[in-house]
Amino acid sequence: MKIDNNTLKKIAHLARLEFDEAGAEKMTKDMTQILDWVEKLNEVDTEGVEPITTMSSEVNVLREDKVGEHLSHEKGLKNAPQKDSDYFRVPKVME
Amino acid sequence: MEKFLSFDEIKKSLENRETDCKSIVNYYLNNIKTKAHLNAFVEVYEQSALQKAEEIDQKLALGKAGKLAGMVLGIKDVLCLAGHTVNASSKILEGFESQFTSTAVQRLIDQDAIIIGRLNCDEFGMGSSNENTVHGKVLNDLDNTRVPGGSSGGSAVAVQANLCTVSLGTDTGGSVRQPAAFTGLVGTKPTYSRVSRHGLIAYASSFDTIGVFSRNVKDNARVMETIAGPDDFDSTASRKPVPNYSELLHFGKPVKIAYLKETINSSALQPKIKENTLEVLDRLKKEGHEVDEVNFPLLDYVLPTYYILTTAEASSNLSRFDGVKFGYRTPNAHNLESMYKLTRSEGFGEEVKRRIMLGTFVLSASYYDAYFTKAQKVRRLIKNFTEDLLNKYDYIIMPTTPTTAFKFGEHSNDPVAMYLEDLFTVQASVSGVPAISIPNGKDEKGLPIGLQIMANSFKEADLYAFAEYLSASN
Fold this sequence. Notes:
The complex is a heterodimer of chains A (95) and B (474). Chain A is mostly helical and 95 residues long. Chain A has a domain at 5-41: Orthogonal Bundle (Histone, subunit A), CATH 1.10.20. Helices cover 36% and strands 0% of the residues of chain A. In chain B, a hairpin with a 5-residue loop joins β10 (435-442) and β11 (448-454). An eleven-stranded mixed beta sheet of chain B has the order 1-3-2-4-6-5-10-11-9-7-8, with helices on both faces. In chain B, 40% of the residues lie in helices and 13% in strands. Chain B has helices at 7-15, 21-34, 46-61, 103-110, 153-160, 177-183, 217-227, 261-264, 271-286, 299-317, 336-347, 350-363, 368-392, 415-419, 426-431, 460-473, and strands spanning 41-44, 72-76, 114-119, 166-171, 186-189, 209-214, 256-260, 290-294, 395-399, 435-442, 448-454. The chains are: A mainly alpha (95), B alpha/beta (474). At the A-B interface, α1, α2 and α3 of A face α10, α11, α12, α13 and α14 of B.
């Protein structure tokens, strides 16, 4: 699968990443190389095989519906790059 | 003189009152300073380790110490310890302080193990050489021009250079077993879900495991039996009972062993590694075990399956690093969207960005079925094959790695060549079964070779017993 410029831009936007020209060129090359390599999977006959979606053999692990505290408000805010007394602060969403 | 090379030795010295925990910690602190150039430790908890040692010495005097009293541990920079910084070797977690302690680490602390510091690794566990790190590369203590392996390179070198008794790493596709092979250690990846992942910074959640580095099998078993088991904070953690692996190391019956033709005949395999692996198989035959060659036609598909699924899971897991709630935030943003994009572009390293991009691609609407669903189907085939084989045979044996430790920069310009380093370790990760790497001699350059043993899910006790048997006769 050859990654073109438009696809790269679209994927980068979805991943919330940006690349300068040189970075975009290298990423396009690397992704194309890796995708060509993983496409080897097309050789495997998977007709009728169910995709596997969980690896743990535990199902429906339930516990008592009891409220407990894991992280306090203060601890939750502790690592914020920008905050006030109650909230995380971010740049303006609406201009 | 080198000392405290095993926990048995430490315990004996403590029992005979030849030493105390404070002296043990000071001994390792001194080694850490002498070997600072290896760059294994990102941060040394000198004060808290010494203070803890004093407390445990008092407990020992009263006969009230936990079963790991005297054990000194390093932890990989992806495991949370309350009140201490954790970075996952990434700029994006600059200045991040853990607000709680990971379950595995807490269980060791509860048994009076002393945490001496956190250890360098590849960013978010993504790498096979410990070169992708904001903390600078880690050197192999045997040859400083060579890599220690990755991603848990710092955890490997810390034990290799005797900077702590044992260490914790994490293994998503070989990140404990491969560096263990490159540094001449015992390294384990448990069954998926055997050890709680609470407090482990996620890379690929359906593959991530916490593993152990040690100089001998018994110490490894001791740590594993302590950290394994159910956990209220990780509902995927298995509720199956955890045997005391370290007391079940006796091995005395003939077993059935399979080796995979495609691994032994792989063109990527270094001849001396092949020779040493075949020697072990020969010896096992002579000792009365059944050793059979088996075909594994899916070998070439294991790595592509692994890379599609892990990059997909990584792209999802790493979406939380957006500059809002913790870690690095760009100073250059002019609105919310540019804050996300610039924070992530400035904060993540190149390999991490590559995997996020790939993962986003294989999960995107137009390509989801062709890549992601396809890989989930092949994963089932590989898992079924491996489990069926392990129902017929007790163990699968193969080399841990195709080569011994390579030089810095050797694979830096070719991501696929770097990925091929994990050729033999990913099968256990894709299948979820446990595996161990033990030393199996050296190559012509004196570099350690690893032998990998796999067993069926939750058969850690059998795996350790067999590894002990092979190590003892090696």
